[in-house]
Design brief:
single chain; 159 residues; mainly beta; 1 helix; 11% helix; 40% strand
Length: 159
C-alpha cells in the first residue's frame, strides 16, 4: 500500500451536490433529492416535444410567487426545438435549457433545473401538458431567485 506525500496530486473528481429540497415538520427535517424526478420529467418532456415538433402549440404559465413573466396562450407556430448544452439526445442526457422556437423568432426558454413533473390533461378537444417546477417551500426555498412553485402549460389543439 502506497501513501501519498504532501506534494503529490490525488485524482479526485469534484462534483456539485445534487439539489435537495428541505422539508421541515416540527423539529424534524428531511432532504429529498430532485435529480431522479428531474430526469424522469425531462425524458417525458423531451418525448412530448419531439412529437410536437413542426406543429402549432400554445404556451401559458402561472405561478405562486412572481419573479418571471406571465404568459397566456402564446402561440408558437411550426415549433422547432433547441437545447443546451448541445448534444445528441438520449435517456441519460438532461438538458439544462430547452428552447422552443416559433415563427418570427418567437421563443420560450425552459430551464430544467427545478422541473419535477410533467402531467397530461385532455379537455374539450385539446391536450394540456403541465410542467411543474418546484423550488422547496415558501419559507425554505432552495434558490432564493426563483418562486417556490411555477407551472408552464403547453397546449396542442386537435387538428
Amino acid at each position: 500500500m502506497k501513501t501519498m506525500s504532501l506534494f503529490e496530486e490525488a485524482d479526485i473528481e469534484v462534483r456539485e451536490p445534487d439539489p435537495m429540497t428541505t422539508v421541515q415538520v416540527g423539529s424534524r427535517v428531511a432532504q429529498i433529492p430532485l435529480r431522479k424526478r428531474r430526469r424522469e420529467a425531462c425524458n417525458k418532456l423531451m418525448e412530448i416535444l419531439q412529437e410536437l415538433e413542426g406543429k402549432d402549440i400554445h404556451i401559458g404559465s402561472y405561478n405562486a410567487g412572481g419573479r418571471h413573466y406571465w404568459v397566456g396562450n402564446l402561440k408558437l407556430p411550426r415549433l422547432k426545438l433547441d437545447w443546451y448544452p448541445p448534444a445528441k439526445y438520449s435517456k441519460a442526457y438532461i438538458p439544462s435549457a430547452i428552447v422552443l422556437w416559433g415563427s418570427r423568432s418567437a421563443q420560450v426558454r425552459i430551464f430544467t433545473n427545478y422541473l419535477v413533473a410533467v402531467r397530461e390533461q385532455e379537455y374539450m378537444g385539446y391536450t394540456h401538458w403541465l410542467l411543474d417546477f418546484r423550488n422547496g417551500f415558501w419559507e425554505h426555498p432552495i434558490d432564493s431567485y426563483y418562486s417556490h412553485y411555477a407551472c408552464l402549460t403547453i397546449t396542442k389543439f386537435k387538428d
